[in-house]
Design a protein that fits this description.
20% strand; alpha/beta; 6 helices; Rossmann fold; two-stranded parallel ribbon
Length: 210
Protein backbone atom coordinates (compact mmCIF):
# COMPACT_ATOMS: atom_id res chain seq x y z
CA UNK A 1 0.00 0.00 0.00
CA UNK A 2 1.28 3.46 -0.96
CA UNK A 3 1.01 6.27 1.58
CA UNK A 4 1.67 9.95 0.89
CA UNK A 5 2.62 12.04 3.95
CA UNK A 6 2.32 15.83 4.06
CA UNK A 7 4.24 17.55 6.83
CA UNK A 8 6.89 14.84 6.63
CA UNK A 9 9.67 16.95 8.13
CA UNK A 10 7.61 17.99 11.15
CA UNK A 11 7.69 16.53 14.65
CA UNK A 12 4.76 14.19 13.90
CA UNK A 13 5.78 13.60 10.30
CA UNK A 14 9.16 12.11 11.15
CA UNK A 15 7.54 9.60 13.52
CA UNK A 16 5.05 8.75 10.78
CA UNK A 17 7.83 8.05 8.29
CA UNK A 18 9.76 5.88 10.72
CA UNK A 19 6.76 3.80 11.76
CA UNK A 20 5.28 3.51 8.27
CA UNK A 21 8.57 2.21 6.88
CA UNK A 22 8.93 -0.22 9.77
CA UNK A 23 5.44 -1.51 8.96
CA UNK A 24 6.28 -2.18 5.33
CA UNK A 25 4.39 0.62 3.60
CA UNK A 26 5.65 2.30 0.43
CA UNK A 27 5.95 5.90 1.60
CA UNK A 28 6.18 9.19 -0.27
CA UNK A 29 7.29 12.08 1.93
CA UNK A 30 6.19 15.47 0.64
CA UNK A 31 8.37 18.34 1.84
CA UNK A 32 9.96 21.60 0.75
CA UNK A 33 13.53 20.49 1.50
CA UNK A 34 14.58 16.88 0.91
CA UNK A 35 17.84 17.36 2.84
CA UNK A 36 15.84 17.46 6.07
CA UNK A 37 15.02 13.78 5.59
CA UNK A 38 18.52 12.51 4.84
CA UNK A 39 18.41 10.20 7.87
CA UNK A 40 15.50 8.24 6.38
CA UNK A 41 17.31 6.53 3.50
CA UNK A 42 15.15 3.49 2.74
CA UNK A 43 14.20 1.42 -0.29
CA UNK A 44 10.49 2.04 0.30
CA UNK A 45 10.84 5.81 0.70
CA UNK A 46 10.35 8.37 -2.05
CA UNK A 47 10.85 12.06 -1.33
CA UNK A 48 8.77 14.55 -3.30
CA UNK A 49 9.88 18.14 -3.02
CA UNK A 50 7.15 20.73 -3.30
CA UNK A 51 4.98 23.31 -1.58
CA UNK A 52 1.47 22.60 -0.30
CA UNK A 53 0.52 26.11 -1.40
CA UNK A 54 1.31 25.16 -5.02
CA UNK A 55 -1.24 22.74 -6.43
CA UNK A 56 0.86 21.58 -9.37
CA UNK A 57 3.59 20.18 -7.12
CA UNK A 58 1.00 18.29 -5.07
CA UNK A 59 -0.59 16.78 -8.17
CA UNK A 60 2.76 15.32 -9.23
CA UNK A 61 3.19 13.54 -5.88
CA UNK A 62 -0.33 12.07 -5.92
CA UNK A 63 0.24 9.61 -8.78
CA UNK A 64 -0.75 6.04 -7.82
CA UNK A 65 -1.11 6.78 -4.08
CA UNK A 66 -3.60 4.84 -1.94
CA UNK A 67 -3.75 6.88 1.27
CA UNK A 68 -2.97 10.49 2.14
CA UNK A 69 -1.93 11.61 5.63
CA UNK A 70 -1.84 15.31 6.54
CA UNK A 71 0.31 16.32 9.51
CA UNK A 72 1.06 19.89 8.51
CA UNK A 73 2.65 22.29 10.97
CA UNK A 74 3.05 26.04 11.01
CA UNK A 75 6.58 26.16 12.40
CA UNK A 76 7.04 29.10 14.73
CA UNK A 77 4.40 31.21 13.02
CA UNK A 78 1.23 31.98 14.94
CA UNK A 79 -0.46 33.50 11.89
CA UNK A 80 0.24 30.83 9.28
CA UNK A 81 -2.61 29.57 7.11
CA UNK A 82 -0.58 26.68 5.70
CA UNK A 83 -2.76 24.04 7.37
CA UNK A 84 -6.04 25.24 5.92
CA UNK A 85 -4.78 26.39 2.51
CA UNK A 86 -2.47 23.40 2.16
CA UNK A 87 -5.26 21.00 3.07
CA UNK A 88 -7.60 22.63 0.56
CA UNK A 89 -5.00 22.10 -2.18
CA UNK A 90 -4.34 18.51 -1.08
CA UNK A 91 -8.06 17.72 -1.26
CA UNK A 92 -8.24 19.17 -4.77
CA UNK A 93 -5.25 17.07 -5.86
CA UNK A 94 -6.77 13.94 -4.32
CA UNK A 95 -9.93 14.44 -6.34
CA UNK A 96 -7.87 15.12 -9.47
CA UNK A 97 -6.16 11.75 -8.96
CA UNK A 98 -9.18 9.73 -7.74
CA UNK A 99 -7.70 9.09 -4.27
CA UNK A 100 -10.28 8.80 -1.50
CA UNK A 101 -8.70 7.89 1.85
CA UNK A 102 -7.59 10.92 3.88
CA UNK A 103 -6.34 10.99 7.47
CA UNK A 104 -5.79 14.49 8.83
CA UNK A 105 -4.20 15.44 12.16
CA UNK A 106 -5.60 18.59 13.77
CA UNK A 107 -5.85 19.31 17.50
CA UNK A 108 -7.88 18.43 20.54
CA UNK A 109 -10.16 21.38 21.25
CA UNK A 110 -11.29 21.82 17.66
CA UNK A 111 -14.99 21.54 16.90
CA UNK A 112 -17.08 19.76 19.50
CA UNK A 113 -13.97 18.65 21.43
CA UNK A 114 -13.59 22.12 22.94
CA UNK A 115 -15.31 20.71 26.02
CA UNK A 116 -12.31 18.44 26.64
CA UNK A 117 -10.03 21.41 27.33
CA UNK A 118 -9.20 22.93 30.69
CA UNK A 119 -9.23 26.67 31.37
CA UNK A 120 -5.57 27.12 30.39
CA UNK A 121 -5.91 25.56 26.94
CA UNK A 122 -9.38 26.90 26.19
CA UNK A 123 -8.92 30.52 27.20
CA UNK A 124 -5.19 31.27 27.35
CA UNK A 125 -3.54 29.10 24.69
CA UNK A 126 -6.26 28.71 22.06
CA UNK A 127 -8.30 31.72 23.15
CA UNK A 128 -5.35 34.11 23.00
CA UNK A 129 -1.74 32.99 22.50
CA UNK A 130 -2.35 30.42 19.71
CA UNK A 131 -5.69 31.78 18.54
CA UNK A 132 -4.57 32.14 14.92
CA UNK A 133 -3.18 28.60 14.81
CA UNK A 134 -6.34 27.25 16.39
CA UNK A 135 -8.65 29.03 13.95
CA UNK A 136 -6.56 27.68 11.07
CA UNK A 137 -7.12 24.16 12.42
CA UNK A 138 -10.86 24.86 12.58
CA UNK A 139 -10.91 25.94 8.93
CA UNK A 140 -8.76 22.95 8.01
CA UNK A 141 -11.35 20.63 9.57
CA UNK A 142 -14.16 22.31 7.64
CA UNK A 143 -12.36 21.64 4.35
CA UNK A 144 -11.87 17.98 5.27
CA UNK A 145 -15.45 17.45 6.42
CA UNK A 146 -16.83 19.05 3.26
CA UNK A 147 -14.47 17.16 0.96
CA UNK A 148 -16.72 14.13 0.30
CA UNK A 149 -13.60 12.00 0.64
CA UNK A 150 -13.24 9.02 3.00
CA UNK A 151 -11.80 11.04 5.84
CA UNK A 152 -10.79 10.67 9.47
CA UNK A 153 -9.71 13.66 11.55
CA UNK A 154 -7.38 12.83 14.46
CA UNK A 155 -7.39 15.33 17.35
CA UNK A 156 -4.41 14.81 19.67
CA UNK A 157 -3.72 16.63 22.91
CA UNK A 158 -0.52 18.54 23.66
CA UNK A 159 2.57 16.77 22.33
CA UNK A 160 5.29 15.22 24.48
CA UNK A 161 8.58 13.56 23.53
CA UNK A 162 7.70 10.25 25.15
CA UNK A 163 8.12 6.84 23.54
CA UNK A 164 5.49 4.93 21.59
CA UNK A 165 3.42 2.99 24.13
CA UNK A 166 0.32 2.04 22.15
CA UNK A 167 -1.58 2.68 25.38
CA UNK A 168 -3.71 5.79 25.11
CA UNK A 169 -7.32 6.92 25.10
CA UNK A 170 -9.14 7.65 21.86
CA UNK A 171 -12.65 8.43 20.75
CA UNK A 172 -13.67 9.67 24.21
CA UNK A 173 -16.71 11.90 24.74
CA UNK A 174 -16.23 15.60 23.85
CA UNK A 175 -17.08 16.65 27.41
CA UNK A 176 -14.63 14.24 29.09
CA UNK A 177 -12.35 16.31 31.32
CA UNK A 178 -10.61 13.36 33.00
CA UNK A 179 -7.98 13.06 30.26
CA UNK A 180 -4.46 14.45 30.71
CA UNK A 181 -4.55 16.51 27.46
CA UNK A 182 -1.10 15.08 26.65
CA UNK A 183 0.09 12.48 24.15
CA UNK A 184 3.53 11.57 22.79
CA UNK A 185 4.28 12.34 19.17
CA UNK A 186 5.22 8.69 18.68
CA UNK A 187 1.79 7.56 19.92
CA UNK A 188 0.05 10.12 17.70
CA UNK A 189 1.83 8.56 14.72
CA UNK A 190 0.91 5.07 15.94
CA UNK A 191 -2.79 5.93 16.08
CA UNK A 192 -2.79 7.70 12.72
CA UNK A 193 -1.18 4.70 11.01
CA UNK A 194 -3.74 2.35 12.54
CA UNK A 195 -6.47 4.32 10.77
CA UNK A 196 -5.11 3.26 7.37
CA UNK A 197 -6.67 -0.19 7.66
CA UNK A 198 -9.24 0.45 10.40
CA UNK A 199 -12.60 1.92 9.36
CA UNK A 200 -13.86 2.45 12.93
CA UNK A 201 -13.41 6.21 12.78
CA UNK A 202 -14.40 6.80 9.16
CA UNK A 203 -16.08 10.24 8.91
CA UNK A 204 -15.34 10.83 12.60
CA UNK A 205 -13.06 13.05 14.70
CA UNK A 206 -11.52 10.93 17.50
CA UNK A 207 -9.67 12.71 20.26
CA UNK A 208 -6.35 11.31 21.44
CA UNK A 209 -4.82 11.63 24.90
CA UNK A 210 -3.49 9.74 27.93
Amino acid sequence: MKVLVFGATGTIGKHLLEQLLQSGYAVTAFCRNASKLSQFAHGNLTIAEGDVLQLDTINKAMTDQDVVIIALGSGKSRKSIVRSEGTKNIITAMKNNNIRRLICQTTLGAGDSNGNLNFFWKHIMFGWFLKGVFLDHELQEQYVKNSRLDWTIVRPGSFTDGKKTGRYLHGFEPNDTSITLKISRADVADFIIKQIKDQTYLYQTPGLSY
